[in-house]
C-alpha cells in the first residue's frame, strides 16, 4: 500500500514539474497583457528621467536606419532602480512578450509596445526556408506575394493574432524578400466602422498607433484607395523601411 502511495505521489510530482515546464514565465497571463498601470508606471519613469536630464530619453543605442517601430527601445537599466523598482512583468526583460519603446521621442515621448509574437512568427517561417528561396503562391499585388506554406512543409498558412482585434493576420512577402505582417483586416475595420478623415497618400498605420498602446511593427505603409479601402503603399518610403528591416530583422531581441 505504501509503495502504491509513494508511486502515486512521485507521478503527481512529476506531472506538476512537467506542467511547470509547459507554462514558462513568458506564457503566464501577467506577462502577456499590456496592463494600463504598467504602461503608466513606465511613462512616469520616462517623464521623470527626461525632466532630470534636460529632455533626454532612456533608450538603447540603435543604428539610425533601424525600423522606426523598434528604433527607440527603452533601456530599463537607465530607469531601474532610481525611477522604478523593476521592469514591468510583461516586458521582454522580465520574460514577457512585449518590448517597451518610445514613440515620437523628440516631442511626446509616449511609451508604446511591440508585440514580440510578430517577429517570432516571421522567424518561424524563415527557419523553414533556410538555404533556399522563399516559395511564393499567388500575388497579392504587383509587389507583394502570398507564401507557399505547403512547399515549406506547413499544413496550413501561418498567421499571427492581431494585437488590435480578434483577427488572425496573414504574413506575406514583398519582391525584395522581406516578410511582413498584413494589417489590412484591422485597418479595413477602422475605416468601415469609424470613417476617419484620411486621404490617398496618408500612412494610415497611424490609425492603429492612435488607438492602441501597441505599434504595428513588421509592417509596410498602408494608405487608402479611391474607395477608402486600405491598400499597401509602395514607393521610396517603403523601400527605406525595407532597408531598415534588412538591417534589424536578424538582430531584433526576441524571447
Automatic annotation (TrEMBL):
Composition-biased stretches (Basic and acidic residues): 236-248
Stretches the record annotates as Disordered: 236-255
PROSITE patterns: PROKAR_LIPOPROTEIN
Keywords, ordered alphabetically: Signal
Signal sequence range: 1-19
Protein name as it appears in the record: Uncharacterized protein
Amino acid at each position: 500500500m505504501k509503495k502504491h502511495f509513494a508511486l502515486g505521489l512521485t507521478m503527481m510530482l512529476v506531472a506538476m514539474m512537467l506542467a511547470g515546464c509547459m507554462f514558462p514565465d513568458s506564457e503566464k497571463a501577467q506577462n502577456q497583457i499590456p496592463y494600463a498601470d504598467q504602461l503608466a508606471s513606465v511613462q512616469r519613469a520616462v517623464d521623470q528621467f527626461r525632466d532630470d536630464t534636460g529632455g533626454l530619453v532612456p533608450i538603447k543605442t540603435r543604428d539610425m536606419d533601424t525600423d522606426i517601430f523598434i528604433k527607440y527601445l527603452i533601456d530599463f537599466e537607465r530607469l531601474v532602480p532610481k525611477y522604478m523598482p523593476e521592469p514591468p512583468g510583461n516586458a521582454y526583460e522580465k520574460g514577457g512578450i512585449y518590448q517597451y519603446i518610445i514613440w515620437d521621442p523628440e516631442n511626446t515621448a509616449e511609451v508604446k509596445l511591440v508585440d514580440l509574437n510578430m517577429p517570432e512568427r516571421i522567424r518561424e517561417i524563415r527557419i523553414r526556408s533556410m538555404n533556399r528561396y522563399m516559395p511564393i503562391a499567388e500575388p497579392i499585388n504587383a509587389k507583394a506575394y502570398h507564401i507557399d506554406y505547403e512547399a515549406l512543409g506547413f499544413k496550413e498558412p501561418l498567421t499571427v493574432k492581431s494585437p488590435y482585434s480578434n483577427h488572425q493576420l496573414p504574413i506575406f512577402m514583398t519582391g525584395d524578400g522581406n516578410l511582413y505582417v498584413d494589417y489590412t483586416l484591422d485597418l479595413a475595420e477602422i475605416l468601415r466602422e469609424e470613417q476617419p478623415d484620411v486621404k490617398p497618400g496618408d500612412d494610415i498605420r497611424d490609425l492603429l498607433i492612435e488607438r492602441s498602446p501597441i505599434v504595428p511593427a513588421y509592417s509596410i505603409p498602408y494608405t487608402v484607395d479611391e474607395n477608402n479601402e486600405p491598400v499597401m503603399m509602395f514607393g521610396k518610403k517603403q523601400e527605406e523601411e525595407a532597408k531598415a528591416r534588412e538591417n534589424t530583422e536578424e538582430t531584433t531581441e526576441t524571447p
